[in-house]
Design brief:
Elements: H1 16-69, H2 75-80, H3 87-99, H4 106-114, H5 116-148, H6 153-160, H7 167-199, H8 203-252, H9 255-263, E1 273-276, E2 281-284, H10 287-294, H11 304-312, H12 319-349, H13 364-372, H14 377-417, H15 424-445, H16 454-477, H17 483-504, H18 516-533, H19 539-558
Antiparallel strand pairs: 1-2
Helix pairs in contact: 1-8, 1-14, 3-8, 3-11, 3-12, 3-14, 4-5, 4-12, 5-11, 5-12, 5-19, 6-7, 7-8, 7-14, 7-15, 7-16, 7-17, 8-12, 8-14, 8-15, 9-12, 11-14, 13-14, 14-15, 16-17, 16-18, 17-18
């Protein structure tokens, strides 16, 4: 009699039948072990390919920063690239820095959970805001900022209104710091969560490495590096969206299946209803809600990192081309992002990915990319490109925010308000140190892996839109506006964002709207009233306004 196949005890198994059964069990265990080992090796191989693609991308971004650093000879070069941006770079840089990871995570996540209404009305508001910002604001602020020799938004406000005491500059710089540091922190947090969820690495380590790369090319290359990398990043974002869309449609079973699954959910494909995932029923999407979410578009005219792109274009006559490129890209990319959310739900129904609840829905593209990486080496490398696209979306916003926040400290507060006399080289050094200091603070704020990302983005967007938006519009188009109205409107708008968010909106009902809308209105009304009841602008300011107006009108007539 033979012994047991699983041990050395000859008395363990007495019958041939049992021994045969034991051999079969052993073969089965060996097969399972081999299968698990192959699966593990396949998964590790996919992760290595993803990491390789992302590593190459990050190294390339640092290379761009080092290259652009050789072109920074003055503070104007560092903050505005010497006003040498071409139309295509201006367009794609502005939109890449605008969209952030919201495009690849937030928008598809909303569509995945609730259907088309919320995501699409928000996208429509942003698309309209983008177009009119380029059409109305871009050309005028490029002419005006050049006329008054301003290189930052606070600098423009101060010079436009001849604020000799630099109170406007000081307050606007403080507003930028208040809203941009946590905004930057949310970007660092998004990068940390991406790497942590993909590779299982420590969140803090992943977040700090991402921050070091962003700070690295921003500190070395300044505005030119941020703009050049934004152009590259917009390409990565586009490629990521397209690949995910077609792969998702294939896995979900085709477009007809996707539509059928969406139609099965009440309100999912309705623009006046939204699907409630808790009750499984359709909820009405009121006109007030539509107006509220479309108010996102109001924020554009107050975004410092976008306005800087307008101020930096080399040839203002080519802004029309930039507007067309930017508007087309925004519309197409947001349409694809919303569609991916719907496709993602169909993939869940097909069993390809698990159902994603709450904020986990924002990782839908990450889950699809992870699924793609399991289809071979080439697919894993492509998945790495897609995930680099998400990383790019976050980085392109964070670098612009760092520059805007650092310019507020070094250029506006130190030189403008406190009159610290710095040479050009010393000013650039201070700017770089400021970027590092702000980044350290942002890293500290983002240290909690459970910190909200998109709630902060929404709040900061409202803060800038309400504080700066009406001031920018009146500064460019209303010659009766003065520094008193601008200052009062800026403070009122910023304060109302906090008041509405934390004191009024919690009451619900008609008050439960996005804080940007009421805060923007309050800021505009206060600006107008205070400007009218205080002393009119001097003749020098009015003459300068008329000069800019004539140049702007001459451009329009030439077109």
């Amino acid at each position: 009699m033979g012994g047991c196949c699983l041990c050395e005890n000859r008395n363990c198994i007495k019958s041939d039948a049992v021994r045969l059964c034991s051999v079969t069990e052993l073969d089965s265990m060996a097969f399972t072990e081999k299968h698990n080992k192959e699966g593990l090796e396949k998964m590790l191989s996919a992760k290595v390919c993803i990491m390789l693609a992302i590593a190459v991308y990050l190294i390339a971004m640092l290379g761009v920063g080092i290259y652009c650093s050789k072109k920074n000879n003055s503070v104007d070069d560092f903050y505005l690239g010497g006003r040498k941006l071409g139309p295509f770079v201006t367009a794609m840089s502005a939109e890449a820095s605008d969209m952030s990871s919201w495009l690849l995570m937030g928008l598809p996540g909303v569509a995945y959970l609730t259907g088309v209404a919320d995501a699409t009305w928000t996208a429509i508001g942003l698309a309209l805001g983008t177009y009119f910002n380029w059409l109305i604001i871009a050309k005028r602020i490029r002419i005006y900022s050049h006329q008054v020799n301003a290189i930052t938004v606070p600098d423009f406000f101060s010079r436009r209104y001849r604020d000799d005491k630099n109170i406007l500059m000081c307050i606007s710089a403080i507003v930028i710091i208040i809203f941009f540091i946590p905004y930057t922190a949310s970007g660092f947090a998004a990068c940390g969560k991406l790497f942590s969820s993909l590779f299982g690495v420590n969140y803090m380590v992943a977040m700090i490495i991402s921050a070091v790369v962003i700070v690295g090319y921003t500190v070395t290359g300044g505005f030119l590096a941020a703009s050049a990398t934004d152009l590259i990043q917009s390409i990565f974002m586009t490629v990521a969206l397209i690949i995910i869309l077609f792969f998702g449609i294939h896995i979900a079973g085709g477009w007809d299946t996707i539509v059928a699954n969406a139609q099965a959910l009440p309100g999912y494909l309705n623009m006046t209803e939204t699907f409630d995932v808790v009750s499984g029923k359709a909820e009405p999407y009121s006109m007030l809600t539509i107006i509220s979410v479309m108010a996102w578009g109001l924020g554009y005219c107050g975004m410092p990192h976008i306005l800087l792109r307008f101020m930096a274009i080399e040839d203002k006559e080519k802004l029309a081309l930039s507007r067309r490129v930017a508007s087309i890209w925004v519309v197409i990319s947001m349409a694809i992002a919303v569609t991916i959310g719907i496709v993602g739900y169909a993939m869940t129904k097909a069993g390809a990915i698990q159902f994603l609840e709450g904020s986990a829905s924002e990782t839908i593209i990450v889950r699809i990319a992870d699924l793609l990486s399991q289809h071979g080496t080439l697919a894993a490398l492509i998945a790495g490109v897609i995930l680099a696209g998400i990383l790019a979306a976050t980085m392109s916003t964070a670098d612009s925010q760092l520059l805007a926040a650092s310019s507020s400290v070094s250029q506006n507060l130190l030189r403008g308000v406190f009159h610290v006399n710095l040479s050009e080289k010393a000013a650039i050094l201070v700017a770089r140190i400021t970027v590092i200091v702000i980044s350290v603070i942002a890293i500290f704020l983002a240290r909690d892996p459970n910190s909200s990302v998109f709630g902060i983005v929404s709040f900061a967007w409202a803060g800038f839109g309400a504080s700066f938006g009406p001031v920018v519009v009146f500064a460019l188009f209303w010659k009766r506006s003065n520094k008193h109205g601008a200052l009062a409107g800026m403070i009122a708008g910023g304060a109302m964002v906090f008041i509405w968010k934390y004191l009024i909106a919690p009451k619900g009902g008609v008050f439960g709207i996005y804080e940007l809308l009421p805060a923007f209105v309050v800021s505009a009304v206060v600006n107008v009233i205070v400007s009218l009841v205080t002393q009119a602008p001097t003749q020098e300011i009015v003459s300068e306004f008329e000069t800019v107006k004539k140049e702007y009108q001459g451009y329009k007539h030439a077109k």
